[in-house]
Each structure stands twice: as C-alpha cells, then as structure tokens.
Design a protein that fits this description.
- The chain is of the alpha/beta class.
- Helix content is 34%, strand content 26%.
- The chain has eleven helices and 14 strands.
- The chain has helices at residues 14-24, 37-46, 55-60, 76-85, 100-113, 122-125, 128-138, 169-172, 180-191, 296-306, 314-334; strands at residues 4-10, 28-33, 51-52, 64-70, 89-93, 117-120, 145-153, 196-204, 217-224, 229-235, 249-254, 258-262, 275-280, 283-288.
- An eight-stranded mixed β-sheet has the order 8-9-10-7-11-12-13-14. The chain has a six-stranded parallel β-sheet with strand order 3-2-1-4-5-6, sandwiched between helices.
- Helix 1 (14-24) crosses helix 10.
- The mean pLDDT is 96.
C-alpha cells in the first residue's frame, strides 16, 4: 500500500533523486517546504503535484508518514529529530549529521520513538552498477571481499552557483563527512562488516585558500571486522573536460575474483554509465547494469508500512555516518 510523503529542504540536488525513489515506489508526494523561493519554484516545476507549505503544516499532517529531506547539512539532525518526534519516518540526504553529538541525539530519538532514520547514500542506492555489484558479491561471485578501493571525485563547477554554506565546514561538514560518507557506506556493504575502524585519515585544502576551512581533498584507510581493508579517496578536482561530474570508481578484490565499477563513464570506451567489469577463474567480462532495478525506494516503502529494516539496517546506517565523522576528526587531529 502506498502512502503520502513530503519533502523539506531543497538545498542539495539529491532531493530530486530522493523524491523519485519514493515516487517510483508508488508513494504520493503531497507537500513540500523550502525557505528559498528560487529552489521552491524549480522543485514545484518538477513536481507540480506537491503544494508548498510550512514545516509546521507538514509536521502536523497525520496523513504524511515519511519526511524526505535535503536541507543545509547543519540543519539535518534537528529536522530529523523533530520529524521522528512528530511520529514520522525520515529519509535524509548525506551527510545525515555533522557531529558525533548530533548522531548520539538521533540514535536516542530513534530508540525513543521507533521511527526510521535512513540516509540515502546515492552512490550506492541510486546507482545501478553498485547495486548489481553487491548482488554479485553476496552471491559469492568473487569469494570473500578482502579489499575495496573507492574513488569519489566531484566537480565544483561554477563557483558563482555555490551558496556560501557550501564553503563553510560548520554548515556543510568537511570532504570526509560529506562525499566520503558514500564510500564508508559502500565499504560496509561490500565487506559485509558489522563494524569497522578508521586507521588513517587526511584532509587538505590544495586549491581554495580563499575559503579557509574548506577541504577539497580527503582519503582514509579503514579496516572491517571481517579483516577486509579499504582505501577511500575523494576530491573536488574533476577536470573541466570530463563529460560527467565525477569518474566514480570502485575496485573490489575478493579471494576468487575482482570487480571494477565505472559508475558514470567508461573513459574512451563504452557510452553511458553503469559499467561493471568482472574477472574470475573463467576469464573477464563486462556487465551492463543499465537494466538493474533499484530496490531502495520499494524497500523503504515496505519498511514504513511493516516497521522492518529491509532497505538498510539501522545499525548499518548509523555506523556509516559514524565512520565518516570519526575519519574527519582523525584528519583534524593528525593535521
């Protein structure tokens, strides 16, 4: 059975993918709230079925069961807590919060209310090659995963189109809390780890001295409770000549094979994205993942209805966020 949901905060473009995930699952978007008229106008054009209203009106609307949110990162924890206390489940953009204290408060609210707090890590849950790779890994295609290398380059683009909050770590977090949240979540998923620890982390501002505190490069080394290791690297240096915002790549080494993901482009190769390359005892092959279904939206729909955890186990969601926050803290302490 579908249900009604609302969106709050349109400050990151991921809100469109978040919305589409629930619409594709058959749910009904009825309301949205945004402070910025420009962002509201753009969203209303894309989703004319939704009525713009206030946050208070959404919180008071008992027909709305799920809040989908992408406000400025510094506002996400408080919004999620308020929504859960109002009896609503929450799906928020990454980073879900910016401090470990915020995460502790979110956990406590989740425990007290029984509501769902889900972070849509789009490089996994909105990405078909990642989804297919995880299916193959869980089917044993490459044996036990013992190492993951994840690259998450991004493009800053037109500086004039970036809002001031983007450059402020107090409002947006650092590169490891923001972009690398995707990589930490995928590391847990691919290795099947319940827990992991950050062994080393580094952040830097190589090319933006006009924005003190901003970090345009980061990497981390992480170890899973399964024994697997990972190297995760993120940056804001996608070249202007790239046809995509970032050449996201993931390399998985297993005891029986390897997988390489070219998520958004196959440089000088096949057109489009969603490329998976598998090497095992039988040889090498390319897997076109463009027809792979994305299960997150339907699974979250069912979780809201059934009070289950099929889209993403809650401890997994919490721990992915925790790892990103701890990596950023380690990078600061090591600087």
């Amino acid at each position: 059975m579908p249900f009604e949901f609302a969106t709050i905060g349109l400050n990151h473009g991921h809100i469109y993918g978040q919305t589409e995930a629930m619409l594709a699952a058959g749910c009904t978007l009825t309301r949205f709230a945004a402070e910025e008229d420009e962002l509201a106008a753009r969203y209303a054009e894309a989703f004319p079925q939704a009525t713009r209203c206030t946050v208070d009106e959404i919180m008071a609307d008992e027909s709305i069961r799920l809040i989908v949110a992408a406000p400025i990162p510094a506002a996400r924890a408080a919004l999620a807590i308020r929504a859960m206390e109002a009896g609503k489940d929450v799906m928020v953009d990454k980073p879900g919060c910016l401090t470990l204290d915020e995460l502790t408060a979110i956990k406590a609210t989740r425990e007290a209310t029984g509501r769902i707090w889900s972070v849509l890590y789009s490089e996994h849950y909105r990405q078909k090659a990642t989804t297919r790779a995880l299916e193959l890994v869980r089917d044993g295609a490459i044996g036990k995963v013992i190492h993951m290398t994840g690259f998450g380059p991004h493009r800053i683009g037109d500086y004039g189109k970036r809002y001031p909050w983007f450059w402020d770590p107090a409002q947006n977090g650092t590169i490891l809390t923001d972009i690398a949240a995707h990589q930490f979540e995928q590391f847990l998923a691919f290795t099947g780890a319940v827990s992991a620890r950050v062994l080393q982390a580094s952040e830097a501002n190589h090319a933006h001295p006009q924005y003190p505190g901003f970090t345009d490069y980061g990497h981390a080394v992480v170890e899973a409770d399964t024994g697997a290791l990972g190297f995760l690297r993120v940056d804001w240096f996608t070249p202007a000549g790239s046809p995509v915002w970032g050449d996201g790549r993931t390399f998985l080494t297993g005891t029986k094979g390897t997988i390489e993901l070219r998520k958004y482009m196959d440089i000088e190769g096949r057109a489009g994205g969603d490329h998976l390359f598998l090497t095992d005892a039988q040889g090498t092959r390319h897997v076109d993942c463009t027809d792979t279904p994305l299960p997150y939206g339907p699974a979250l729909r069912d979780d809201v209805l059934n009070r289950s955890e099929t889209a993403m186990p809650q401890p997994h969601c919490f721990h992915a966020t925790e790892l990103a926050l701890k990596a950023a803290a380690l990078a600061r302490d090591s600087a």
